[in-house]
Specification:
Blueprint lengths: L3 E2 L8 H9 L10 E8 L3 E9 L10 H5 L2 E3 L2 E5 L5 E4 L1 H14 L7 H14 L15 E10 L12 E10 L10 E5 L17 H16 L4 E5 L7 E4 L3 E6 L4 E4 L8 H12 L4 E4 L3 H10 L2 E8 L3 E9 L12 H14 L10 E3 L2
Parallel strand pairs: 1-3, 9-10, 9-16, 13-14
Antiparallel strand pairs: 2-3, 2-8, 4-7, 5-6, 5-7, 6-17, 7-8, 10-11, 12-13, 12-15, 15-16
Helix pairs in contact: 3-4
Bound molecules: pyridoxal-5'-phosphate (PLP) and 2-OXO-4-methylpentanoic acid.
Length: 360
Amino acid sequence: MDFSTTLSTAPVSDERLAEILANPGFGTHFTDHMVTIEWTPSEGWHAARVTPYGPLTLDPATAVLHYAQETFEGMKAYRHDDGSIHTFRPEENAARMVRSSHRLALPVLEVDDFVAAVDRLVEVDQRWVPDNSVGGGEKSLYLRPFMFASEAFLGVRPAQHVTFMVIASPAGAYFKGGVKPVTLWLSTDYTRAGRGGMGAAKTGGNYASSLVAQQEATAQGCDQVVFLDAQEGQYVEELGGMNLYFVHDDGHIVTPETGTILEGITRASIIELAGKLGHPVEERRFSIDEWRDGVTSGRITEIFACGTAAVVTPVGSLKSDAGDVPAPASTDLTMQVRQALVDVQLGRSEDTFGWMHRVV
Ligand code: PLP
Ligand code: COI
């Protein structure tokens, strides 16, 4: 795919950029450029371009605004201490977008084109990838590829005009206050995904449906919400934006598998990493009673959550209408897994799995 490039005539100044990168937060500042590719049934994917970052003009009848036909991805670019820039398993994000797009009746953007689009933006906006060589930080450039129904038409059918874009935003810690256990609220009034639904797809609707449950969590004084399966209300699924892991006293780890969770790329990577560290990971259904009993009896020694934005974060106590479950005793393995992952991403340890993709 050939990309045309129109560079910004008003990029953020070096002084302002230094200020932003010193304290990027999450998802608030955006780079100087964006990538756009268009699709129609007759032309396929075409008009691939890099342009200055800026607002879109949309017809009020644009289908995504009404029927939410949309998919997105979340990934990061990391600057290594030698100045080179790498993304983490980008072909996995591309493959997941293909799966999500199938579920949302959107066209397939081939893996190579997805990766090329992301690479192009990282290359053009490379000065936005934070440098961690002094002070051992963990900042990165968060990348947000997304695809949406851009046809102006109110009939309910797959759009005949679709737009794929990539934008980028420098990222520091996702949770304010750095790495410390997050407290969770167990949602029993709301579920995230049902059988045959969109739970395994990365699509905006899943996040829209999580917001009221997250609001409830916040009102309960908790950081994040935990969802249970929709059918029986017994099995742990995931958080609003992260997968879960339960570490047991004999060293093995359990991560929920229900068919309706988002299959995280961090999740898949941790299954491999933890195995290498001598902690086999079992993927299976995991009930809320097992959580409660396991922590109470001491059989569960740690719980953690993971995702691209939040990396790996320890889980503390769980609050619910049926009573609270205290925080597990330890966070040692959580922090070990976190370090092992971050070290590969930031080029501080050998990439034995071949996960990193060099862009610059
Ligand atoms: N689950 C949900 C609902 C998410 O939004 C995310 C974040 O992307 C994850 C899990 C973790 O996925 P990944 O590790 O690919 O970022
Ligand atoms: C991510 O980790 O990339 C996510 O998508 C979580 C959230 C920011 C939506």
